[in-house]
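Bumping my old thread because nobody answered last time. Still need a sequence for this structure:
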């Protein structure tokens, strides 16, 4: 491949991609290359997939946590018979939230 082709590729890559430098402990690069190769992936493809799957999993945990919180709030309001009890429940939920923030 000539210098012109390399320059064109470099310009395209600079426009189309962000670059991240990753440091791994000694022997880590070979381990990652072996793993990726054994699974029919490039190192770049493997790292991108690992990042995407981790971010997706972390977001799912957040959704699960939100579901738990919503159920707790719903339980607080479930037994309210009038506005005074609703106001009291709101106050209790706010106090719970403040307590969680400080822990």
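Sorry it took so long. Here it is:
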């Amino acid at each position: 491949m000539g210098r012109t082709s390399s320059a064109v590729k470099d310009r395209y890559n600079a426009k189309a991609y962000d670059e991240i430098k990753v440091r791994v402990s000694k022997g880590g690069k070979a381990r990652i290359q072996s793993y990726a190769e054994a699974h029919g992936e490039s190192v770049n493809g493997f790292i991108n997939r690992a990042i995407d799957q981790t971010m997706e999993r972390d977001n799912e945990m957040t959704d699960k946590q939100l579901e738990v919180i919503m159920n707790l709030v719903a339980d607080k309001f479930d037994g309210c018979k009038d506005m005074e009890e609703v106001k009291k429940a709101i106050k209790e939920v706010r106090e719970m939230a403040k307590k969680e923030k400080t822990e």
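The two ends are 59 Å apart (CA to CA). Let me know if any region looks off to you.
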